[in-house]
Amino acid sequence: VGEDVKPFTPEKTKEIVMSLQQPAIFCNMVGDWPALHWTAKYLSAVLDGQTIQFRLGLKTVDLVPQFETRCSYVKATLEEFLAWSSGQPSCLSGPFSCYEYSKYWAYADYKYIAKIFEDKPEVFQDIRWSDFGFPGRSGKESTLWIGSEGANTPCHLDSYGCNLVLQVQGRKRWHLFPPGDTSCLYPTRIPYEESSVFSKVNIANPDLKRFPKFRNATAHVVTLSPGQVLLVPRHWWHYVESIDPITVSINSWIELDADHEARIEEAITRMLVCAIKSAENPSDGDLWLNPTEVEATSHEINLQYLNKAVTAYFKCQKASVSEQACSSS
């Protein structure tokens, strides 16, 4: 087999992505993607002094998850981040000066590529999800993650879609749990973030006294290396940690028909969280909303979300019913 022959055609890959109920790693699918050169150093040159927000957490492991509401945040350039993570003395001043590299990790996570490179749209073409059967999907519909060793995302599931993750630099360890383990992972909606259900368990150091059912959960642990693409199927829980000094990954969420129903659940959840929160002491708000949620929205707006979700769901139902009618007739 020639070096440049991919193991699956785009059509076959899409079929696997849309139907597989288990996580899978695709190898030899992205060898010709320019995005494989997106090291932190390369991106630092492309971004040329543009600042991005980093989330900082402690490397010491607690019994409770280090939720994003408990982290510190700094705005910095990738150049400053690289200097800090390589222990350069120039970091005694600057955004990372209060955070000792041996004690903290930093994570520029969940950065919409369309937003950070809006004035450089040519870079969108470096990412070619068309090879996975999604023509027209590029960096514009993708998200960038840049972390230092120890950087992690608390264990959660995504309410919508399935997830394709390309590893570019360094390795990341993924702890994946099937949807059937949900009750063993003690789900919570606080901190609230639309489309994320968090686990109360710190996967890296579980408190089995408080969360005894976690013993019954089965972790599928994989180490994702550069050039590999991980498929995270719908509603699989995941805890992700960077295990190399610098990691870069790119992901894209693939919409699924089942999302229409999930959007209704999410719209109702949003309405309840905002209603309860507005009855609480307003100063507690910071612990309720994940930093990715901008603010608590009004009852009026929440009703509009719910309305849209229900309308889209019924449209989709009608469409599939008429399709079935056509095929049966």
UniProtKB/TrEMBL annotation:
Localisation per UniProt entry: Cytoplasm
Domain JmjC: 105-269
Main location: cytoplasm
Pfam families to which the protein is assigned, alphabetical: Cupin_8
GO cellular component assignments: cytoplasm
Keywords: Cytoplasm
Top-level taxon in the UniProt lineage: Eukaryota
InterPro entries assigned: Cupin_8, HSPB1-associated_protein_1, JmjC_dom
SMART domains (UniProt xref): JmjC
Function, as annotated: May play a role in cellular stress response.
PANTHER family: HSPB1-ASSOCIATED PROTEIN 1, HYPOXIA-INDUCIBLE FACTOR 1 ALPHA INHIBITOR-RELATED
Name of this chain's protein: HSPB1-associated protein 1
Species the sequence originates in: Apaloderma vittatum (Bar-tailed trogon)
Taxon lineage: Eukaryota, Metazoa, Chordata, Craniata, Vertebrata
